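Deviations from the work plan: none for this task. Representative record:
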Amino acid sequence: MNVGVAHSEVNPNTRVMNSRGMWLTYVLGVGMLHIVLLSIPFFSVPLAWTLTNVIHNLGMYVFLHAVKGTPFETPDQGKARLLTHWEQLDYGVQFTSSRKFFTISPIILYFLASFYTKYDPTHFILNTASLLTVLIPKLPQLHGVRIFGINKY
Amino acid sequence: INHVVHNGGLYKRPFNEAFEETPMLVAVLTYVGYGVLTLFGYLRDFMRQWKIEKCQNATEREEQKDFVPLYQDFENFYNRNLYMRIRDSWNRPICSVPGAKVDMMERVSHDYNWTFTYTGRVLKGIINMGSYNYLGFAQKEGTCQEAAAKVLSQYGAGVCSTRQEIGNLDKHEELEKLVARFLGVESAMAYGMGFATNSMNIPALVGKGCLILSDELNHASLVLGARLSGATIRIFKHNNMQSLEKLLKDAIVHGQPRTRRPWKKILILVEGIYSMEGSIVRLPEVIALKKKYKSYLYLDEAHSIGALGPSGRGVVEYFGLNPEDVDVMMGTFTKSFGAAGGYIGGKKELIDYLRTYSHSAVYATSMSPPVVEQIITSMKCIMGEDGTTVGKARVQQLAENTRYFRRRLKEMGFIIYGNEDSPVVPLMLYMPAKIGAFGREMLKRNIGVVVVGFPATPIIESRARFCLSAAHTKEMLDTALKEINEVGDLLQLKYSRHRLVPLLDRPFDETTYEETED
C-alpha cells in the first residue's frame, strides 16, 4: 500500500508500540493465552502458569529480539535492517515508556508464576531461566550486541 | 466544554478541524487483525519455503543460492502477505478521462491477486471519488480542450529542450506572468513535474548550515528535497504551533549542533492541505511565528490552489492574508487545473535566482505546449478573464459540495478527519480487512475510491480518501452517499460517538522521538 507513502516517519516500526491500544491488546493477549492454557484439563494450575510464562517469554524473544529488520521497505536505505525490533523502538532512545512497560511485564508475569507454582524448585529454575532470556537483551548495554556473532546478519 | 482557542485573534474565520480519537475496542481489534495476518504470513512463508505451497514470487536461481542474498526477504513480508491479498483495490486501469465519472477495465484474478486477467468488459460510468479533480477541469470537451488542441496543432507536443537552452517558448512566459498575477506575487516560474518542483528547488534554496523545519506529514517530494539539500532537518508535530515555536526558539538559542554558530537560514516547510489527513495548515499562526523569529516560509499548495478561497487563489486567500508574507509559494497544476507540472512564485530576485540555479530549470525538459495552454485557459477561467462566470461557479460548487458531503457523512456517523472546508475527506476504516472490503464493495456499487493503509498511515489509522470535485453534481453525491451508507452498515464503519470538540488542539507532549542526525 504505497499510496502516498509520503511522510516524515521513516520507520513506522519505531512508533508501533506507542500507538493507542497496543499495551491493552498485549495484556489481553497474554490473558487469553493463559485462559486457553488453564482450560486444557490435563494441566495443573502451576503447570499452566509456568507454561504461560515460558510461552510468553519465547514469543517476546522471537518477535522483539530475534527477528531483524522491518517487514516493509523503508526509505532510509536499510538503516534498520540489522536491528531487532527492540533496538528499533523509538529510534534507539533508551528508557522510553514502551521500553519500560515491556521490561516490567515479564517481571510481573514471573512474580505471578512464582506465586502460583508455590516456589517449587523445578518450576523456579524454568521460570527464572526464561525470564533471563527475555530480560538480558533489553539491557541498554546490550543494544546492538550480538554474542558470538549469532544473528548478526 | 470549556475550550481555549490558542491564538484565536489571528483568525478571521472559524477554523474547525477535528481528528476524533480511535475507539479503544476498534484499536484492539485492529491489532488482533494485524496479529492474525502476521501469524498466517509466517505460516504461509514456512509452507512456501518447504515447498508445500507454490511460491508465486520471484526467487533466486539455483546457482545463486549460496551467494550472499541480494534482497532481504523479510522486507517483502508485508508486501506478499498483506498487500497481495487486497491488491485489486489499487492500480486499476482506467480507460476514459478521469472526470466526475470514469470507465474502468474490469479485471479478475484466479490466484488471489498474484496475476490479473482482463475480461475485456469495460465498467462504464463509475463515479470517480479518487481523482484530484477539484475544479472539474479534467474534461475532454470545452474551451480548455479546444484551446489545447489548437496549440497542439500549432506548436506540436514536444519541446525537446530545457528551459535554459532552446526550450523557452513564448507560451511559458505567458504562463508565468499569468501565474504571478493569479497568486498576487511578483514573479513565478513553471516546471514540468510537481514532484520535481519540490525536490529540485529546495536544494537550490537551502544548503549545509541551514535549518529546515518540516511538518510531520509532509509529502515525499518535500522530504526528498530537504534531504537532497544537505540542510539539517527538524520535524515538528503536525499543524502544532507550540511544537514549531519550541523548535524555532531552540534553533535560535542553541544555533548549529556542535559549533553553536547561528543558522544561515531557517526554512519552514508546510503544505496548504495535507492530503492524507484533510487538514489545512494554520497559516496565520505560521506567518506570525515566521515574522517573530525571522525565518522563511515555503508553502506547498499542491492540493489547496484552486480549491480554497472565495476565488480559488488558495490557502492564503482563504485566511485573508497577504501573499507577500509567504516567501516561496509553490503549487502544482496537476490537481485543480487538470494539467501537469508545478510552479514556484515569489519575489523577482528569488525567481530570477531559481531560473539560473534550479536543477529543474537547467536539466529538465520544459513543459509541453498543449499542457501549458490547458493551464492558461483554466486559470483564466477561474479568474473570470475569459468573460464567463464558469470559474467562479466551479469554485462555489466545490465549496458547497465539500460542506454538504462532510456534513452528511458526519451525520451518518462515520469518523471523518480534517478541516470542514477541505475537499479531501478521509474516512476512517481502521481494520486491515476493511480496507480491501471497502474498495471492493464500492466498486461493485459503481463508485471508485482510493483506500490507504499501513505503512502509508499509522498502523491503526487506515482510511478511505474521497476527493470531491466541482464536477460532481448533487445527484452524484447523493448516490455516492447512499452507497457509502449501505457499505458503512454492511462493514460496520460507523464508529463516531459524536463527541466532536470544535477545535481539537492535539496536546503537545514530548513522548515521540525522531531519528537523530548523523
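Chain B has two domains: 20-128+389-499, 143-383.
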